[in-house]
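About this split. The held-out portion is used to measure sequence recovery: a designer receives only the structure tokens and must propose an amino acid at every position. Recovery is the fraction of positions where the proposal matches the reference. Here is one held-out target exactly as it appears in the evaluation file.
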């Protein structure tokens, strides 16, 4: 299975985020899956790819040509495909993926996750989606989505299109099962303790 991972490119993060990103790469490769990612050498993307490579897994990076600068991309971690634009990069990542996992990240990660979530809501794919909730990072976003649904701006069923996972192994297992389970903040109280 090709599992696409979105995540931060920043190196200015707490070490726990890097540990979990590397553990995700290890879990993906350890289960016999291929990591599809944005090709970045830094941040959580680089840590995830390092974990996958350490476990002997297959790694596919997809990056726009303008990222081809010294130190930006991982060129020796497997296959690297270049695109002309960011839009082409996202489309190729989405096409190659059979499941999606988002690590903590910034606006680029949010944009990638929400585009794939929107496409799933519109019935353009039925691929599993998971958020790896390191340190409760995604809890505020899920609360916002739950409020969005409660206020009538989106269907409650949108909350059933992805899962919030507490560990890399859980996220990979979720993807392998191909299921979505409802995310509800009221059920997260025990999870977040």
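Reference sequence for scoring:
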């Amino acid at each position: 299975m090709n599992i696409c991972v979105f995540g931060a490119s920043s190196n200015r993060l707490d070490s726990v985020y890097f540990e979990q990103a590397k553990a995700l790469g290890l879990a993906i490769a350890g289960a016999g899956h291929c990591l599809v990612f944005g090709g970045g050498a830094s941040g959580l993307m680089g840590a995830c790819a390092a974990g996958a490579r350490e476990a002997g897994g297959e790694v596919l990076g997809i990056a726009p040509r303008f990222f081809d600068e010294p130190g930006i991309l991982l060129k020796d971690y497997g296959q690297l495909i270049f695109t002309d634009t960011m839009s082409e990069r996202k489309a190729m990542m989405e096409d190659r993926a059979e499941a999606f996992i988002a690590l903590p990240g910034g606006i680029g990660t949010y944009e990638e996750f929400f585009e794939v979530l929107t496409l799933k809501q519109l019935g353009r794919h039925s691929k599993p989606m998971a958020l790896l909730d390191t340190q409760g990072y995604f809890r505020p976003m899920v609360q916002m989505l739950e409020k969005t649904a409660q206020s009538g701006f989106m269907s409650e069923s949108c909350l059933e299109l992805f899962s919030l996972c507490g560990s890399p192994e859980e996220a990979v297992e979720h993807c392998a099962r191909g299921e979505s389970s409802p995310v509800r903040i009221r059920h997260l109280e025990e999870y977040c303790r």
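Annotator remark: The radius of gyration is 16 Å.
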